[in-house]
Design goal:
Helix content is 19%, strand content 46%. It has two helices and nine strands. A seven-stranded mixed beta sheet has the order 2-1-5-6-7-8-9.
Length: 140
């Protein structure tokens, strides 16, 4: 639930599986992060601590593969600030990364490689199931 709140976010943890990225975990905002109506700045040390723990527990197969954040007052399209930040992360990592923007009732999954947005898929909230809420590709 993100409508009407300050932006929120965290990192995506997972593995590179050939040409695929597998998301296996996320972190959530902490007291050191900066949340505002139209921005989220990830600064809490817990994100790095949790990523390091996942890396060690997985024998170095689970790593930082991207970020997620909310747009409670807009759609799931990235801003120029988002894409600029993502481009720097991808360049630093030297690997493709995935970025998720969550808006009320819609998500968008963005893949970036070498600083270029190479694919975006919008997901729309579907029914709740035994394992949680189902999101399915939306119509463009």
């Amino acid at each position: 639930k993100c409508g009407g709140a300050d932006e929120d976010g965290g990192i995506l943890l997972g593995s590179y599986r050939g040409p695929h990225l597998e998301v296996t975990g996320v972190t959530h905002s902490g007291p050191g992060d900066k949340r505002a109506r139209y921005s989220f700045i990830r600064q809490d040390a817990a994100h790095q601590r949790l990523a390091t723990e996942a890396w060690r527990k997985s024998r170095e197969t689970v790593t930082f593969i991207g970020e997620w954040h909310t747009h409670p007052y807009g759609g799931p399209n990235p801003s120029s600030i988002d894409t600029g930040s993502w481009s720097k992360l991808v360049k630093s990592a030297g690997e493709p990364m995935v970025f998720v923007v969550v808006a009320p009732k819609r998500w968008a999954v963005h893949f970036m490689c070498s600083g270029f947005l190479i694919r975006a898929e919008e997901l729309v909230r579907g029914p709740s199931g035994e394992l949680g809420v189902v999101f399915a590709p939306g119509q463009r």
